[in-house]
């Protein structure tokens, strides 16, 4: 196993050398890297056998984690590579074989400015209470955007920040804030228990890695109501879809109450996409909803489908639609029209914005 661990470290080194975001180990394939959104096999590596994938993956798992995997058939974990980098990983079964995926987590937490995100996001880091969400597909930088906002609080406020994650991803270095990072399965049983216990831990700001169930969402909204600033993520595509998803996860008899609570507590929703840039690399396209009076009324009245219209007509308040963001990137020559169209929620509207 020690030799296998060194092989695994060599593969993680390849991720860093090639500026990749992900490493995939799959039986019958060479190790594969994701670079600028596309998959590339490492050509000078041999095709992986069943034993190769198992031994390489297990070389980074503790005996307890290996036992947990045997029971659950998959496992999320985080690992440090020689103090040079951190990876979020998942080992899982498919068609009876093991596969694994490793996502690179930069050691340096980039700022809102360095991520080319709108500067208006800083206003949400100054709020004393409320609920802010970062949404979008998997692999499009939700955790990175949240980390930037949390770290801005860390450097500008004197607060107690609590994170509840599965697994812990970015490691924060406390500055003006006290920061406690709790990992589900190691430091706390589950998201709901971790969030509920923060009421007794004098937390001011709480980041929930992901909201997966009604209990966690309900407790998060209640926390936002009672003087806490809550940040989290959801796997939704747009702000309107996010509001509907939160409400629809509850049984009908609870939806009216959740709708009212969300209307009061929601601060905003950032939807982020990473799109291939014409100059190489990836670039942001975003949608930003700011919960103004009109948005709160639409949520309260169950008219989330009209939120897109408010975003379209509230540019002066700092809101931006995904189509407007995409059109701007095309007009600046940063993204091709073909790529913008692939990510557009309404290609017809995009063509209209571009005068096509």
UniProtKB/TrEMBL annotation:
<protein>
    <submittedName>
        <fullName>Type IV pili twitching motility protein PilT</fullName>
    </submittedName>
</protein>
<dbReference type="GO" id="GO:0016887">
    <property type="term" value="F:ATP hydrolysis activity"/>
</dbReference>
<dbReference type="GO" id="GO:0005524">
    <property type="term" value="F:ATP binding"/>
</dbReference>
<dbReference type="InterPro" id="IPR001482">
    <property type="entry name" value="T2SS/T4SS_dom"/>
</dbReference>
<dbReference type="InterPro" id="IPR027417">
    <property type="entry name" value="P-loop_NTPase"/>
</dbReference>
<comment type="similarity">
    <text>Belongs to the GSP E family.</text>
</comment>
<dbReference type="InterPro" id="IPR006321">
    <property type="entry name" value="PilT/PilU"/>
</dbReference>
<dbReference type="Pfam" id="PF00437">
    <property type="entry name" value="T2SSE"/>
</dbReference>
<feature type="domain" description="Bacterial type II secretion system protein E">
    <location>
        <begin position="121"/>
        <end position="280"/>
    </location>
</feature>
<dbReference type="InterPro" id="IPR050921">
    <property type="entry name" value="T4SS_GSP_E_ATPase"/>
</dbReference>
């Amino acid at each position: 196993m020690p030799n296998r661990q060194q092989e695994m470290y060599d593969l993680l080194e390849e991720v860093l050398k090639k500026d990749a975001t992900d490493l995939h180990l799959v039986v019958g394939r060479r190790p594969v890297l994701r670079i600028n959104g596309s998959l590339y096999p490492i050509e000078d590596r041999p095709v992986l056998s069943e034993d190769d994938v198992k031994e390489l993956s297990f070389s980074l798992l503790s005996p307890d984690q290996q036992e947990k995997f045997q029971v659950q058939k998959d496992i999320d974990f985080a690992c440090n590579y020689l103090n040079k980098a951190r990876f979020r990983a998942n080992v899982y079964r498919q068609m009876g074989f093991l596969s694994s995926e490793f996502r690179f987590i930069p050691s340096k937490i980039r700022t809102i400015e360095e991520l080319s995100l709108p500067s208006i996001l800083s206003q949400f880091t100054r709020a004393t209470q409320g609920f802010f969400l970062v949404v979008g597909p998997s692999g499009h930088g939700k955790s990175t955007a949240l980390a930037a906002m949390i770290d801005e609080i860390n450097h500008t406020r004197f607060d107690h920040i609590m994170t509840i994650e599965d697994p812990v991803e970015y490691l924060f270095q406390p500055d003006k804030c006290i920061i406690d990072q709790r990992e589900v399965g190691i430091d706390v049983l589950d998201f709901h228990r971790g969030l509920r216990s923060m009421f007794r831990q004098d937390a001011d700001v709480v980041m929930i890695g992901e909201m997966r169930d009604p209990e966690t969402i309900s407790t998060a909204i209640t926390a936002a109501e009672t003087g806490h600033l809550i940040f989290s993520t959801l796997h939704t595509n747009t702000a309107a879809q996010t509001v509907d998803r939160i409400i629809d996860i509850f049984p009908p008899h609870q939806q009216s109450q959740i709708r009212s609570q969300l209307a009061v507590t929601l601060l905003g929703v950032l939807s982020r996409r990473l799109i291939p840039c014409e100059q190489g690399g990836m670039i942001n396209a975003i949608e930003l909803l700011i919960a103004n009076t009109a948005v709160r009324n639409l949520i309260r009245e169950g008219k989330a489908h009209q939120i897109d219209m408010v975003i379209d007509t509230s540019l002066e308040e700092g809101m931006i639609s995904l189509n407007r963001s995409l059109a701007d990137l095309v007009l600046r020559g940063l993204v091709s029209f073909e790529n913008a169209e692939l990510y557009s929620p309404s290609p017809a509207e995009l063509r209209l914005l571009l005068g096509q």
